[in-house]
């Protein structure tokens, strides 16, 4: 895990190495173990890298790395879990390696197969490599977008980095806010790709690659699609129900074992939930004995159902983990808040919990930890898997009546003004609830598109952003091709929005702020490919019972029976926020928009 950045003057001229170094310095927390930069191709290209050493701890793994007999130079952020198998295959063809790093495997594989080799990489990654013979830059991201990659293009020079703030810190990228990005944040609580909070910066989409040569950047080309993967699974032969538990167990064990590949110890974020608890058991099955498992506790939750420490301790004892409970209170939150906001690369209504568990884990000397993020998207754990299809079935017949949606909107707003106890988004039920994409907006959005102007000081800024964002089009694009089942639709939407733009992005900035690599065994394209045919046609969704039963020693029944509470943290109580719990999301959005001068 690292921080990468670069400047490519593809029309000619020279890349500014000082600018590249300023960007690299702004990303220094991402790679505390080494820093290096290089100027290539007669000065047209500058690469810089900040290293967090996880695989091949020797200096042979330092980047920028030139490999394949000088034909390829790369800066790479992430981990390739199948690098050893790929190395053996490449060595069998006569290729010679000078390091044990997964970075060199990417270079050699590209040299052998070209850009489409990304399909063979299992892991989380964002990289930029320079093909010296073809004088082109190739940039790529992993299937889910676990690792970020941002770029800015001015028509003559392309700049890229692991962070938006890093690009701006270089000095050549304007920091004007993006109307589309901030409106997207107001809707979803996170900025949806490919937009960012800065107008001049774009995210390379997850599962995409882009080539930059003397003609300029190509359009990003998607090489992996969640919707297509799930749609294909829906038409695949269904396994025998009697075989399902074994299929699930084997797929999960394989993914956990792959995510344990490291030359340093690997820890675990352990809550009282099924996802992380099952990971604890699966880690032991994979041979990870005495894993350090870190649980957050809060005085505000002590003795309540939201106190996760007691049940987490039960799980840790069951699997022989070394359990560490770290208590966080209001004073530490107040002290850390300026650093949290500085590390938060783009606005997010979440991530504070990950900041503190990452901080606690790094304090213990660990550089890598597994997290159970992604289990709900994979196994149908959110209530949206039930609520969304039910809403569409109930609302669609009424929404089809001409003119009824605007009338219902007016009526509901009038009733709310008279004091009727209706939710803020009730006015949009008939307008949005009759289609899967619209129902997802209704259930997940903080503000609905027609109400989002209320979050901004400048209505014109909001209107411009809403038009550029096109929320309905953004959701429709995520569902292309449209999965045939309710499970497929919701799994795709949850993965493409909440998981990608919030959970994974929060894990990246909050972990890297402490020099901690956070790995997600339940967010893995190979795992999805193996389990989607098992789950795609199940109704209701499979839930967590199969995950709980996957370890050799299953999770205790009280974990599976516990009511889902999420990875909670009492920020509202610490702030003394003068809002009811139902209004907390909108309150947080407005506060963060204010930090960007938009509210």
Provide an overview of this structure.
It is a single chain. This protein has 599 residues and is an alpha+beta fold. It has three domains: 2-224, Glutamine Phosphoribosylpyrophosphate, subunit 1, domain 1, CATH 3.60.20.10; 229-380 and 488-568, 3-Layer(aba) Sandwich (Rossmann fold), CATH 3.40.50.620; 384-485, no CATH class. The protein has 24 helices and 18 strands. Residues 2-215 form the Glutamine amidotransferase type-2 domain. It is an enzyme of class 6 (ligase). The active site is at residue 2. Keywords: Amino-acid biosynthesis, Asparagine biosynthesis, ATP-binding, Glutamine amidotransferase, Nucleotide-binding.
Task: Give a short synopsis of this structure.
The chain has 599 residues and is of the alpha+beta class. It has three domains: 2-224, Glutamine Phosphoribosylpyrophosphate, subunit 1, domain 1 (4-Layer Sandwich), CATH 3.60.20; 229-380 and 488-568, HUPs (Rossmann fold); 384-485, no CATH class.
List the helices and strands and how they pair.
Elements lengths: L1 E7 L8 H10 L7 E7 L4 E7 L13 E3 L4 E9 L2 H9 L10 H12 L9 E9 L4 E6 L8 E4 L4 E4 L2 H6 L9 H10 L13 E2 L4 E6 L2 E2 L3 E2 L3 H9 L9 H16 L6 E4 L4 H12 L6 E7 L10 H10 L3 E7 L1 H14 L8 H12 L4 E3 L4 H5 L4 H16 L4 H14 L11 H4 L3 H9 L14 H11 L1 H8 L7 H27 L4 E3 L5 H11 L9 H4 L8 H5 L9 H5 L8 H12 L4
Parallel strand pairs: 14-15, 14-17, 15-16, 17-18
Antiparallel strand pairs: 1-3, 1-9, 2-3, 4-5, 5-6, 6-7, 7-11, 8-9, 8-10, 11-12, 11-13
Helix pairs in contact: 2-3, 5-17, 6-19, 6-20, 7-8, 7-20, 11-19, 13-16, 13-19, 16-19
């Amino acid at each position: 895990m690292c921080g990468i950045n670069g400047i490519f003057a593809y029309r000619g001229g020279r890349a500014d190495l000082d600018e590249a170094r300023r960007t690299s310095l702004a990303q220094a927390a991402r790679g505390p173990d080494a820093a290096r930069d290089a100027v290539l191709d007669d000065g047209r290209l500058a690469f810089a890298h900040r290293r967090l050493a996880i695989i091949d701890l020797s200096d042979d793994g330092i980047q920028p790395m030139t490999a394949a007999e000088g034909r390829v130079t790369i800066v790479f952020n992430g981990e390739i879990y199948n690098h050893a198998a790929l190395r053996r295959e490449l060595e069998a063809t006569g290729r010679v390696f000078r390091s044990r790093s997964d970075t060199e495997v990417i270079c050699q594989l590209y040299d052998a197969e070209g850009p489409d080799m990304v399909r063979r990489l299992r892991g989380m990654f964002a990289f930029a490599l320079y093909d010296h013979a073809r004088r082109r830059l190739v940039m790529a991201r992993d299937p889910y977008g676990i690792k970020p990659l941002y770029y800015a293009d001015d028509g003559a020079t392309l700049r890229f980095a692991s962070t938006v703030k890093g690009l701006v810190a270089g000095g050549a990228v304007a920091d004007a806010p993006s109307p589309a990005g901030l409106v997207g944040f107001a809707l979803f609580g996170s900025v949806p790709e490919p937009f960012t909070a800065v107008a001049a910066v774009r995210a390379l989409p997850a599962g995409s690659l882009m080539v930059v040569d003397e003609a300029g950047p190509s359009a990003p080309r998607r090489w992996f699609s969640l919707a297509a993967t799930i749609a294909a699974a829906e038409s695949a032969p269904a396994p025998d129900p009697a075989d399902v538990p074994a299929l699930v167990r084997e797929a999960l064990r394989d993914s956990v074992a792959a995510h344990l590949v490291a030359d340093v110890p690997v820890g675990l974020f352990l809550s009282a939930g099924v996802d992380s608890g099952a990971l604890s058991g699966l880690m032991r099955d994979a041979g990870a004995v005495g894993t350090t498992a870190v649980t957050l506790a809060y005085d505000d939750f002590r003795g309540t159902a939201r106190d996760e420490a007691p049940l987490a301790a039960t799980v840790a004892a069951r699997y022989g983990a070394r359990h560490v409970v770290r208590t966080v209170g209001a004073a530490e939150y107040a002290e850390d808040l300026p650093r949290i906001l500085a590390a938060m690369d783009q606005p997010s209504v979440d991530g504070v919990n990950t900041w503190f568990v990452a901080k606690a884990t790094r304090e213990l000397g660990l550089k890598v930890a597994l997290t159970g993020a992604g289990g709900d998207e994979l196994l149908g754990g959110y209530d949206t898997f039930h609520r969304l299809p039910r809403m569409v079935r109930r609302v669609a017949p009424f929404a089809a009546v001409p003119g009824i949606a605007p009338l219902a909107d007016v009526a509901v707003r009038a009733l709310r003004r008279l004091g009727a106890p209706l939710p803020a988004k009730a006015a949009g039920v008939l307008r949005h609830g009759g289609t899967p994409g619209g129902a997802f907006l209704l259930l997940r959005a903080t503000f609905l598109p027609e109400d989002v102007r209320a979050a901004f000081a400048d209505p014109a800024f909001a209107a411009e952003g809403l038009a550029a964002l096109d929320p309905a089009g953004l959701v429709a694009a995520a569902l292309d091709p449209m999965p045939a089942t309710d499970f497929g639709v919701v799994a795709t939407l949850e993965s493409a929005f909440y998981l990608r733009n919030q959970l994974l992005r929060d894990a990246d900035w909050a972990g890297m702020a402490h020099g901690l690599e956070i790995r997600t065994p339940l967010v893995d394209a190979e795992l999805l490919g193996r389990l989607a045919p098992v789950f795609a046609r199940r109704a209701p969704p499979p839930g967590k019972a199969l995950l709980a039963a996957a370890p050799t020693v299953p999770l205790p029944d009280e974990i599976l029976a516990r009511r889902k509470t999420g990875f909670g943290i009492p920020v509202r109580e610490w702030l003394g926020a003068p809002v009811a719990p139902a209004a907390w999301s909108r309150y947080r959005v407005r506060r963060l928009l204010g930090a960007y001068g938009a509210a």
